[in-house]
Amino acid sequence: MLRRLHSYSTHKTIPAPRLALLFFLFLSLSNHDSFVKARIFIYADCSQETYAPNSPFEENHNPLLASIVSSSSQAYYNSFAFGNGSSAPTEGICYGLYQCRGDLRITDCSRCIESAVTQISLACPYSYGAALQLESCYVRYENIDFLGMLDKKLKYIKCSKSVNNDVEFYKRRDDVLADLSTAMGFKVSSSGSVEGYAQCFGDLSSGDCSSCLADAVGRFKDLCGSAAAAAVYLGQCYARYWESGYYDLSSGLIHACFLIH
Known about the structure:
Structural class: alpha+beta
Largest sheet: 6 strands, antiparallel
Radius of gyration: 23 Å
CATH class of the largest domain: Alpha Beta
Order of helices and strands: HEHEEHEEEHEEHEEE
Number of strands: 11
Protein backbone atom coordinates (compact mmCIF):
# COMPACT_ATOMS: atom_id res chain seq x y z
CA MET A 1 0.00 0.00 0.00
CA LEU A 2 1.25 3.41 -0.89
CA ARG A 3 1.49 6.02 1.83
CA ARG A 4 -0.06 9.41 1.33
CA LEU A 5 2.49 12.18 1.07
CA HIS A 6 1.87 15.13 3.38
CA SER A 7 1.84 18.52 1.75
CA TYR A 8 3.52 20.51 4.51
CA SER A 9 7.12 21.74 4.14
CA THR A 10 9.98 20.20 6.12
CA HIS A 11 12.39 23.11 5.44
CA LYS A 12 13.61 25.21 8.37
CA THR A 13 14.35 28.89 8.34
CA ILE A 14 17.93 29.48 9.46
CA PRO A 15 18.45 32.58 11.59
CA ALA A 16 20.73 35.24 10.03
CA PRO A 17 23.64 34.73 12.50
CA ARG A 18 23.68 30.99 11.84
CA LEU A 19 23.40 31.57 8.09
CA ALA A 20 26.38 33.92 8.24
CA LEU A 21 28.34 31.33 10.20
CA LEU A 22 27.52 28.60 7.67
CA PHE A 23 28.58 30.90 4.82
CA PHE A 24 31.85 31.64 6.64
CA LEU A 25 32.49 27.92 7.14
CA PHE A 26 31.78 27.25 3.45
CA LEU A 27 34.24 29.95 2.41
CA SER A 28 36.83 28.62 4.86
CA LEU A 29 36.51 25.09 3.49
CA SER A 30 36.69 26.37 -0.11
CA ASN A 31 39.75 28.46 0.68
CA HIS A 32 41.39 25.52 2.45
CA ASP A 33 40.74 23.27 -0.54
CA SER A 34 42.27 25.87 -2.88
CA PHE A 35 45.26 26.26 -0.58
CA VAL A 36 45.87 22.50 -0.44
CA LYS A 37 45.72 22.25 -4.24
CA ALA A 38 48.08 25.21 -4.59
CA ARG A 39 50.72 23.31 -2.60
CA ILE A 40 50.63 20.08 -4.63
CA PHE A 41 54.23 19.08 -5.34
CA ILE A 42 55.27 18.97 -9.02
CA TYR A 43 59.07 18.62 -9.01
CA ALA A 44 62.28 19.60 -7.25
CA ASP A 45 65.65 20.13 -8.91
CA CYS A 46 68.78 20.14 -6.72
CA SER A 47 72.40 20.73 -7.68
CA GLN A 48 74.91 18.09 -6.63
CA GLU A 49 77.31 20.73 -5.35
CA THR A 50 76.72 21.70 -1.74
CA TYR A 51 77.90 24.51 0.50
CA ALA A 52 79.18 24.28 4.08
CA PRO A 53 77.23 25.59 7.07
CA ASN A 54 78.22 29.16 8.03
CA SER A 55 79.85 29.67 4.64
CA PRO A 56 79.65 33.01 2.75
CA PHE A 57 76.98 31.48 0.51
CA GLU A 58 74.76 30.54 3.44
CA GLU A 59 75.06 34.08 4.80
CA ASN A 60 73.35 35.31 1.64
CA HIS A 61 71.15 32.28 0.92
CA ASN A 62 69.08 32.56 4.09
CA PRO A 63 68.29 36.30 3.69
CA LEU A 64 67.40 35.68 0.04
CA LEU A 65 64.80 33.07 0.95
CA ALA A 66 63.44 35.36 3.67
CA SER A 67 63.12 38.18 1.12
CA ILE A 68 61.29 35.86 -1.26
CA VAL A 69 58.71 35.03 1.41
CA SER A 70 58.32 38.67 2.42
CA SER A 71 57.92 39.93 -1.15
CA SER A 72 55.29 37.31 -2.03
CA SER A 73 52.74 39.07 0.19
CA GLN A 74 52.91 42.06 -2.17
CA ALA A 75 53.81 40.80 -5.66
CA TYR A 76 53.34 37.67 -7.77
CA TYR A 77 56.92 37.75 -9.05
CA ASN A 78 60.26 39.13 -7.94
CA SER A 79 63.97 38.41 -8.36
CA PHE A 80 66.92 39.04 -6.06
CA ALA A 81 70.70 39.06 -5.90
CA PHE A 82 72.50 38.94 -2.56
CA GLY A 83 76.21 39.35 -1.95
CA ASN A 84 77.05 40.80 -5.35
CA GLY A 85 78.68 43.97 -4.03
CA SER A 86 82.16 44.92 -5.21
CA SER A 87 83.81 43.93 -1.91
CA ALA A 88 81.83 40.69 -1.39
CA PRO A 89 83.47 37.29 -2.00
CA THR A 90 82.23 35.83 -5.30
CA GLU A 91 81.64 32.40 -3.75
CA GLY A 92 78.95 33.95 -1.57
CA ILE A 93 76.74 35.43 -4.30
CA CYS A 94 73.18 34.07 -4.36
CA TYR A 95 70.58 34.79 -7.07
CA GLY A 96 66.94 33.85 -6.78
CA LEU A 97 63.37 34.39 -7.91
CA TYR A 98 59.85 33.28 -7.18
CA GLN A 99 56.62 33.35 -9.16
CA CYS A 100 52.98 32.56 -8.43
CA ARG A 101 50.38 31.47 -10.95
CA GLY A 102 48.58 34.49 -12.34
CA ASP A 103 45.08 33.56 -11.17
CA LEU A 104 46.00 33.24 -7.48
CA ARG A 105 44.91 35.72 -4.85
CA ILE A 106 47.91 37.48 -3.32
CA THR A 107 47.24 35.86 0.06
CA ASP A 108 47.30 32.40 -1.53
CA CYS A 109 50.45 33.36 -3.43
CA SER A 110 52.19 34.24 -0.18
CA ARG A 111 51.11 31.03 1.54
CA CYS A 112 52.19 28.94 -1.46
CA ILE A 113 55.63 30.58 -1.50
CA GLU A 114 56.04 30.02 2.24
CA SER A 115 55.37 26.34 1.65
CA ALA A 116 57.72 26.21 -1.35
CA VAL A 117 60.59 27.83 0.60
CA THR A 118 60.12 25.32 3.43
CA GLN A 119 60.05 22.40 1.00
CA ILE A 120 63.04 23.53 -1.07
CA SER A 121 65.17 23.62 2.07
CA LEU A 122 64.08 20.08 2.95
CA ALA A 123 64.37 18.68 -0.59
CA CYS A 124 67.73 20.31 -1.40
CA PRO A 125 69.65 20.85 1.87
CA TYR A 126 72.85 22.87 1.40
CA SER A 127 72.54 22.77 -2.41
CA TYR A 128 74.27 25.59 -4.31
CA GLY A 129 71.33 25.60 -6.72
CA ALA A 130 67.73 24.45 -6.39
CA ALA A 131 64.31 24.88 -7.96
CA LEU A 132 60.95 23.72 -6.64
CA GLN A 133 57.64 23.79 -8.48
CA LEU A 134 54.33 23.45 -6.69
CA GLU A 135 50.93 23.46 -8.36
CA SER A 136 50.60 27.24 -8.07
CA CYS A 137 54.04 28.69 -7.37
CA TYR A 138 57.76 28.32 -8.06
CA VAL A 139 61.02 29.15 -6.25
CA ARG A 140 64.58 28.98 -7.56
CA TYR A 141 68.02 30.07 -6.37
CA GLU A 142 71.54 29.59 -7.74
CA ASN A 143 75.12 30.62 -7.07
CA ILE A 144 75.40 31.83 -10.69
CA ASP A 145 73.35 34.52 -12.40
CA PHE A 146 70.52 32.82 -14.30
CA LEU A 147 68.09 35.75 -14.28
CA GLY A 148 66.75 36.61 -17.72
CA MET A 149 68.56 33.72 -19.40
CA LEU A 150 66.29 31.54 -21.54
CA ASP A 151 66.04 27.92 -20.35
CA LYS A 152 63.84 25.55 -22.34
CA LYS A 153 65.06 22.28 -20.83
CA LEU A 154 62.28 19.82 -20.11
CA LYS A 155 61.79 19.51 -16.35
CA TYR A 156 58.58 17.57 -16.00
CA ILE A 157 55.79 16.18 -18.16
CA LYS A 158 52.55 14.49 -17.21
CA CYS A 159 50.12 12.84 -19.65
CA SER A 160 46.70 11.27 -19.07
CA LYS A 161 45.21 8.38 -21.00
CA SER A 162 44.61 8.95 -24.71
CA VAL A 163 41.45 10.04 -26.48
CA ASN A 164 41.16 7.91 -29.61
CA ASN A 165 39.58 8.98 -32.89
CA ASP A 166 37.90 12.07 -31.45
CA VAL A 167 38.36 14.60 -34.24
CA GLU A 168 36.43 17.30 -32.39
CA PHE A 169 38.64 16.95 -29.32
CA TYR A 170 41.82 17.24 -31.38
CA LYS A 171 40.53 20.41 -33.02
CA ARG A 172 39.54 21.96 -29.69
CA ARG A 173 42.86 20.98 -28.10
CA ASP A 174 44.87 22.43 -30.99
CA ASP A 175 42.88 25.67 -30.78
CA VAL A 176 43.66 25.97 -27.06
CA LEU A 177 47.35 25.16 -27.53
CA ALA A 178 47.67 27.67 -30.36
CA ASP A 179 46.14 30.34 -28.15
CA LEU A 180 48.33 29.46 -25.16
CA SER A 181 51.47 29.72 -27.28
CA THR A 182 50.78 33.47 -27.59
CA ALA A 183 50.74 34.06 -23.83
CA MET A 184 52.70 36.97 -22.40
CA GLY A 185 52.87 36.24 -18.70
CA PHE A 186 49.82 34.21 -17.63
CA LYS A 187 47.00 33.19 -19.98
CA VAL A 188 43.87 31.05 -19.73
CA SER A 189 42.18 29.62 -22.83
CA SER A 190 39.21 27.39 -23.66
CA SER A 191 37.48 25.87 -26.67
CA GLY A 192 34.40 23.78 -26.10
CA SER A 193 35.18 21.16 -23.47
CA VAL A 194 38.96 21.77 -23.59
CA GLU A 195 40.60 24.30 -21.28
CA GLY A 196 44.16 25.25 -20.45
CA TYR A 197 46.57 27.83 -19.11
CA ALA A 198 50.20 28.81 -19.65
CA GLN A 199 52.72 31.09 -18.00
CA CYS A 200 56.26 32.37 -18.51
CA PHE A 201 58.49 33.46 -15.68
CA GLY A 202 58.69 37.17 -15.12
CA ASP A 203 62.38 37.52 -16.02
CA LEU A 204 61.81 36.52 -19.66
CA SER A 205 61.51 38.98 -22.54
CA SER A 206 58.40 38.71 -24.72
CA GLY A 207 60.42 37.05 -27.48
CA ASP A 208 61.94 34.47 -25.14
CA CYS A 209 58.51 33.81 -23.62
CA SER A 210 57.08 33.06 -27.07
CA SER A 211 60.02 30.77 -27.84
CA CYS A 212 59.64 28.89 -24.55
CA LEU A 213 55.89 28.36 -24.95
CA ALA A 214 56.28 27.25 -28.57
CA ASP A 215 58.62 24.53 -27.31
CA ALA A 216 56.22 23.56 -24.51
CA VAL A 217 53.30 23.21 -26.94
CA GLY A 218 55.47 21.13 -29.26
CA ARG A 219 56.28 18.76 -26.41
CA PHE A 220 52.58 18.03 -25.88
CA LYS A 221 52.19 16.63 -29.36
CA ASP A 222 55.55 14.84 -29.40
CA LEU A 223 55.37 13.22 -25.97
CA CYS A 224 51.68 13.09 -24.98
CA GLY A 225 50.10 12.40 -28.36
CA SER A 226 46.31 12.29 -27.99
CA ALA A 227 46.20 12.57 -24.18
CA ALA A 228 42.96 13.97 -22.76
CA ALA A 229 45.03 16.10 -20.37
CA ALA A 230 48.69 17.00 -20.05
CA ALA A 231 51.10 19.32 -18.28
CA VAL A 232 54.58 20.35 -19.47
CA TYR A 233 57.11 22.30 -17.40
CA LEU A 234 60.20 23.72 -19.06
CA GLY A 235 62.96 25.69 -17.37
CA GLN A 236 61.16 29.04 -17.59
CA CYS A 237 57.61 28.39 -18.71
CA TYR A 238 54.85 25.83 -18.42
CA ALA A 239 51.56 24.93 -20.06
CA ARG A 240 48.64 22.67 -19.20
CA TYR A 241 45.44 21.60 -20.94
CA TRP A 242 42.62 19.26 -20.04
CA GLU A 243 39.27 18.05 -21.28
CA SER A 244 36.38 18.49 -18.87
CA GLY A 245 36.78 16.07 -15.97
CA TYR A 246 40.56 15.66 -16.26
CA TYR A 247 41.88 18.81 -14.57
CA ASP A 248 43.61 16.87 -11.78
CA LEU A 249 45.10 14.36 -14.25
CA SER A 250 44.12 11.74 -11.72
CA SER A 251 43.41 8.71 -13.91
CA GLY A 252 45.44 6.72 -16.37
CA LEU A 253 48.59 8.78 -15.85
CA ILE A 254 51.95 8.37 -17.47
CA HIS A 255 54.52 10.75 -16.09
CA ALA A 256 58.21 11.45 -16.12
CA CYS A 257 60.44 13.91 -14.36
CA PHE A 258 63.54 15.46 -15.89
CA LEU A 259 66.13 17.29 -13.77
CA ILE A 260 69.07 19.22 -15.17
CA HIS A 261 71.77 18.81 -12.53
